[in-house]
Amino acid sequence: MAEKKIRNDASSSGSGGYNRGESVVVDVGRRRSSCGYCRSGRDSKMSHGLRARSLTVDHYQALLDRGWRRSGCFLYKPEMEKICCPSYTIRLKASDFAPSNEQLRVSKRMQRFLDGTLDVKMRDEVMDEPDTSKSQITSSEVRESLAGKNEEMNKTEQFMHYLSGKIDNAVHGFIGSGNFPCDIQLPKASINKVAPSKRKLLVEGSEDLLFSSNIPFQIAAALRRAEKYKHDIKLSRDSAGKNGLFLELSPNIVAEKLTNSLKQLVESTGLSIRACNGHINFYSAKKQAGLDEVVAIVSSSKESLTGSGIKRSCSKKISECPQGKRRRFELRLKRSSFDPEEYALYRRYQIKVHNDTPDHVTEGSYKRFLVDSPLIYVPSTGNGTIPPCGFGSFHQQYLIDGRLVAVGVVDILPKCLSSKYLFWDPDLAFLSLGKFSALQEIAWVRENQHKCPSLEYYYLGYYIHSCRKMRYKAAYRPSELLCPLRYQWVPFEITKPLLDKKPYVILSDFSILPSEDSTALNALKNNMELQHNDLGREDMNDILIDEDKEMVELDSEDSEDESRQESSGFTSVQLEDGSVSDTLIGLNESRLRYKDLQHAFGPTERRYLETQLQRYTRAVGTELSKQMVYSLE
Basic and acidic residues compositional bias: what residue ranges (predicted)? Predict the structure, then answer.
C-alpha cells in the first residue's frame, strides 16, 4: 500500500491532479568536455548529467528553472562556478516583449518577400550535396547547374557561380576526408574575372587566363587564426602520412590540393586549371580562346545527366518567384517525430551553414539530438489549463508556397515555450529566419496565454556573456537571467554591468540595489537603450547546437565532490539541505524512499550511494528528488 501511494505521488503532477506520468532518470554524474564557445583546447566545461527514460512536463519545467537543459533524452546542468564560460538560463515574459528596430525590420522584410515586393539580390548557388566519393565533373553537370538560374543573369556570371560552387564542394570533400580541419568554419570561394589588360601582368604568357580565385589565402588565414586555440593544425602532404612529415597549410599548398581535385574540369568545361602563387587560375584550354567562346561551349552542352551522383535540393527555388507575385506562408505545429523532409533540410543546413561533414550528419545523430524526447505528452483537456496543442515536444514547420524552409524544435511546458533549435534553408539566409522564428515563437506564447494563463514565458536557452555570439539573446527584451545559486530571476539590465566585470556572478545578490545606487541604475538603463539596436544580429540558430552537441555522448567522470560557493561580497546563503533520506529510488519496478531501502546495502555500498545521492539532490533540488524516480537499474 505504501509503495502504491509513492507511485501515485510521483505521477500525479500538474493542474487539477491530472496524472501526467512518471519521471524516471539515470544519474550519470559529473562530466567534463572541451568548451565550444571559448575553444580553450582543454576540458574546461563541467556539468552534471542525467539520462531521462521518461520525464513529465512539470518536472522539466522545474528543472529549467534550476538551470537544466536537454539534448534529446540527455539532461545537463553546467556547474557554473567551475567552468570557463558560465551559462545563465535566459527567459522573456512574452506579454512584455518590446521589439527593437532591427526586429521590426526583419518582420517587414519577410512581409515584403511574401508580398513579392522585395528585390532579392542573392547569390543563387547550385545546391549540390558534396559527394566526396566521386570527383568526376561532367559538362552535363554544368548544363544542369545553369538550367535553373535566372534567365536575366549574364552567362559569364552564371559560369563564375558554377566554378565557385565546385571549389566549395572540393573544400567540403577535403574536410570529409580529414585533409582540412572539420572544427573550423572555412570561407566560401569567390571567382574573379581577369581583365585582358591585366593577364600578362599576372603570369608570363597568360594571355588565356580567364578567372582567378584567392580562396587558398582565405583558408590559410582562417587556419592561422585558429592556431591560438589549436597548435596542431598541421597535415601531411600525403593523406596516409607515410613519411611522417607534416607541412603547415600555406596558400600555395591549399591551392595545389584544390587544383588537383578539380582537374576533371579540363576535359568538361574547356578550361585548364593551375595553382599559381597561392591562387587558383582558370585558363582556356584552347590557346587564346575568348571568354565568350568558353562560356558558349559550356552552356550549349547537350549531354544528359546520368550517374553523376549529384543531388539537387529543389528544381525550383522560392527566390525565383516572379517579383510582384504573392507567396503563401504557413506555420504548422506537429509533435516531435522523424520526418524525411525535415531531415533533408537539417542535413543541408548543417553542411552548408555549419560546415559539418556529410558523414557526421546522419539520421541517427539527428534523431538523438532533435527528435527523441523523454517528455510525456499531455493532451488538452479543454478546461483552460493546457493549450489546444497540449504539452510536450514539438516541431514548428515554416512553409512558403508549400515548401519547407525552416523548422523550430521547441518544448511547450506549463509556464513556457522553450526554444531548443532552429534549422533553415541556406538559400533564404537573407530573410534572417533565426530572428523571424523567435518573433513567431514569442507571438505564439502571447496568443496561447489567453487559452492557458500559466503559459507566460519564452525561454531562449543559455546566455553566455563571455561569448559575443551569444549576446544576441539579450536583444529580446525585457529579459531575465536565472541566478545560479538561489534560482531567482534577475532583470538583464541589472546583470549586464556585473557580467562585464566578471563571468560568474551570484546575480540575486544584486537584485535589490541600495537607494543611493538609483542614479547609476538609471544611467545603466539609458545606456542599454542606446545599445539595444546593436544586439541580436546573430541568427537564432547558431548557438544552441554548440551547447547541445557538446553534451551528447560524453564520458562520465567520477571525482570527489568539489562543490564550493564563491563569495560575492554580499549576503551568503546556505545551500539546500542535502538530506537524501526521502529521495525516491526505483529498483525492480518498485518505488521506495532511500530511508526504507538503505538497510539493503552494506556500509561501503551505502557510503558510495549516499555520496551520489547528495550530489544528485543538490543538482535537482530536494523537492524534485522526492518526486522523480532515481533509477538504480
Answer: 141-150
Q: For residue 30, list its beta bridge partners.
A: 48
Query: Phi/psi zone of residue 304: left (φ > 0), alpha (ψ -120 to 50 degrees), beta?
Result: beta
What domains, with CATH codes, occur in the chain? 95-120+319-460 (3.40.630), 139-316 (no CATH)
> Band of the pLDDT at 85, cuts 50, 70, 90?
confident
b/e per residue 349-381 (b: at least 16 CB within 10 A): bbbbbbbbbbeebeeebbebbbbbbbbbbbeee
271 beta partners: 284
Q: In what order do the strands lie in the sheet with 271-276?
A: 192-193, 209-213, 279-284, 271-276
Residues near 256 by Cβ (< 8 Å), separated by ≥ 6? 275
Spatial CA neighbour of 427 closest among 190, 189, 125, 129:
125
Identity of the amino acid at 207 = E
Give the separation between CA 484 and CA 508, rounded to whole angstroms. 9
* φ and ψ at residue 531, rounded to 5 degrees: -85, -10
Give me the phi and psi of 403, to 5 degrees please: -100, 135
Instruction: Write the pLDDT tens digit of every residue in 21-49.
Output: 999 999 998 887 767 666 665 666 788 99
Kindly report the three-state secondary structure assignment for every residue of 205-262: CCCCEEEEECHHHHHHHHHHHHCCCCCCCCEECCCCCCCCCEECCCHHHHHHHHHHHC
CA distances from 212 to 186, 195, 209, 272, 566 (A): 19, 11, 8, 12, 57
Q: Are 52 and 73 in contact (CB under 8 A)?
A: yes
Task: Name the strands in the sheet holding 329-335, side by side, starting at the edge strand that comes first in the sequence.
Answer: 329-335, 392-400, 403-412, 416-424, 457-463, 88-93, 479-482, 489-491
* Angle of helix 215-226 versus helix 251-261 axis, rounded to 10: 130
Contacts with 203 (C-beta within 8 Å, 6 or more apart), sequence order: 209, 276, 281
Q: Residue 83 gets which letter from DSSP?
A: S
Find, among 404, 417, 335, 341, the residue nearest to 372 by Cα: 335
User: Distance from first CA to last CA of the chain, Å, rounded?
Assistant: 23
**Among the listed residues 427, 569, 577, the one whose alpha carbon sits nearest the alpha carbon of residue 502:** 569
Quick check: helix, strand or coil at residue 266? helix
Q: How far apart are CA 137 and CA 310, in angstroms?
A: 10
C-alpha cell belonging to residue 15: 493542474
**Around 499, how many Cα atoms within 13 Å sit in the side-chain half-sphere?**
24
Query: CA–CA separation, 337 vs 334, rounded Å?
Result: 8
158 contact partners, CB below 8 Å, separation of at least 6: 146, 149, 299
CB 497 within 8 A of CB 523: no
Question: Which pLDDT tens digit goes with each residue over 277-286?
Answer: 889 988 876 5
- Are residues 251 and 213 in contact, defined by beta-carbon separation less than 8 angstroms? no
CB 98 within 8 A of CB 478: yes
Assess contact for 571 and 583: CB atoms under 8 A: no
